[in-house]
Structure formats: structure tokens, C-alpha cells
């Protein structure tokens, strides 16, 4: 059975770049690797409903913390068997966002912390009720919220298909979400967390060795 490693961080933190670099480093070290990113836009109807709501569709759906949290969770529930299959066939499965994203963003929307009811609800729903695989490790790619926002703006300007949604354009939400992520990491929520400074060069080869050594 392979190891499930989750990369978390704010929008614009550089999660996709780290995923690509770590995938290459793990393969160079002789490990077989599979990757998946959440939400699965264009694949899951639940993810597509999330995207549409965050761009103003479906009435007041985007205003519902628990409604949006449920859609994110249902996207992952539908992918659970695929994740288990990947874990059975690969040494490492890298996920760009997972359950902790739901916990962090919904808590931030309610202006609460990692010890809040909504975080407990996310865990009970996704892990206990839906039976999603529990990660072996989390990598928190930490960058200052203003840096992440600047990167997200630049990404949107460079690619018209990647317009920022209601969460990405809410600087206050991003700042609060960063704080919740720090609390989840400090508590080793669901598994061990490794905090990576996204402002510095990430040594993907060293990181790959650390992950494979555990």
C-alpha cells in the first residue's frame, strides 16, 4: 500500500508547482507516483457546482458554509475508490488539496479556528462517514497571504480560463484561512504535518527522501 501525501496551502501558494517538482523528485528516487487535484473541475458534478456557485450561479448557495462544505466533501467521496486504487498501485499518491482544505476554508469563513464545530463536522463527514483514506502526511506550503494573492492575480491575468473566484478574491478570508492552516499543522490534524516556506526555494529531492524514509 502506498503513502498518501497531501499538499495544502492558500490559493496562489504554489501547490501545483510543488506537486510537479516533488513528483519528479520521487520518480528520480525510484518511487512510482500518482497525482490528483481537488476540486476535480470538469470531472465531478459536485466540483462543477462549487465552481459555478463561486462565480455567482445557483442563488445564495455560495453563502452557505455547510452547503459548500458538503459539495467539496461529495467530490472527494466520489473519488475515494480511485484514490484507494492508486494507493494499491503506487508508492506515493500526491493530492493537491484534500480534507484539510475543507476544514480550513469553512472555519475561516465562520471566523473560527481549528478547534471549531465545523472542523469536527468535516472530519466526521469525510473520514468517518464517507470513509475517505486518511493521509500519511500533510505538506503545508506556507506563504504570506498577500504574496499568494499576488500570484493568484498574476495567474488569472495570464490565463483567461483561470479567473479568480469569490474565495480567491476575498483577501480577508485568505488571511484567516492561513491562520487556520497553521493551527491544523500545529495540531497534526489527521496526520503529521510538515511546514514548508513557500517564499524560499524548496529542495524537492530532500523532501522526497524524507517522505520515503518514513
TrEMBL record:
Protein name stated in the entry? Thymidylate kinase
Similarity comment? Belongs to the thymidylate kinase family.
What is this enzyme's EC?
Answer: 2.7.4.9
Protein's UniProt keywords contain Cell inner membrane: no
Biological source species: Prauserella isguenensis
Q: Does the keyword NADP apply?
A: no
Any GO MF annotation of the entry: dTMP kinase activity
Q: Which UniProt keywords apply?
A: ATP-binding, Kinase, Nucleotide biosynthesis, Nucleotide-binding, Transferase
- Class of this enzyme: transferase
According to its UniProt entry, the protein's GO biological process terms are: dTDP biosynthetic process; dTTP biosynthetic process; dUDP biosynthetic process
| InterPro entries for the chain | P-loop_NTPase (IPR027417), Thymidylate_kin-like_dom (IPR039430), Thymidylate_kin_CS (IPR018095), Thymidylate_kinase (IPR018094)
Reaction it catalyzes: dTMP + ATP = dTDP + ADP
What are the Thymidylate kinase-like domain coordinates in residue numbering?
Answer: 7-200
So what does this one do? Phosphorylation of dTMP to form dTDP in both de novo and salvage pathways of dTTP synthesis.
Q: Name one GO cellular component term.
A: cytosol
Amino acid at each position: 500500500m502506498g503513502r498518501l501525501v497531501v499538499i495544502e496551502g492558500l490559493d496562489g501558494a504554489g501547490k501545483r508547482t510543488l506537486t510537479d517538482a516533488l513528483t519528479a523528485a520521487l520518480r528520480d528516487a525510484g518511487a512510482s507516483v500518482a497525482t490528483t487535484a481537488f476540486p476535480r473541475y470538469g470531472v465531478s458534478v459536485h466540483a462543477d457546482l462549487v465552481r459555478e456557485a463561486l462565480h455567482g450561479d445557483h442563488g445564495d448557495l455560495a453563502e452557505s458554509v455547510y452547503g459548500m462544505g458538503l459539495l467539496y466533501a461529495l467530490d472527494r467521496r466520489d473519488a475515494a475508490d480511485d484514490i484507494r486504487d492508486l494507493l494499491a498501485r503506487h508508492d506515493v499518491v500526491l493530492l493537491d488539496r484534500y480534507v484539510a482544505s475543507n476544514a480550513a476554508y469553512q472555519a475561516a469563513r465562520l471566523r473560527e479556528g481549528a478547534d471549531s464545530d465545523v472542523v469536527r463536522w468535516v472530519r466526521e463527514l469525510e473520514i468517518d462517514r464517507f470513509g475517505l483514506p486518511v493521509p500519511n502526511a500533510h505538506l503545508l506550503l506556507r506563504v504570506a497571504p498577500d504574496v499568494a494573492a499576488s500570484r493568484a492575480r498574476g495567474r488569472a491575468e495570464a490565463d483567461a480560463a483561470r479567473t479568480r473566484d469569490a474565495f480567491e478574491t476575498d483577501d480577508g478570508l485568505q488571511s484567516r484561512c492561513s491562520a487556520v492552516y497553521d493551527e491544523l499543522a500545529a495540531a497534526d490534524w489527521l496526520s503529521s504535518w510538515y511546514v514548508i516556506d513557500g517564499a524560499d526555494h524548496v529542495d524537492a529531492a530532500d523532501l522526497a527522501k524524507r517522505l520515503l524514509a518514513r
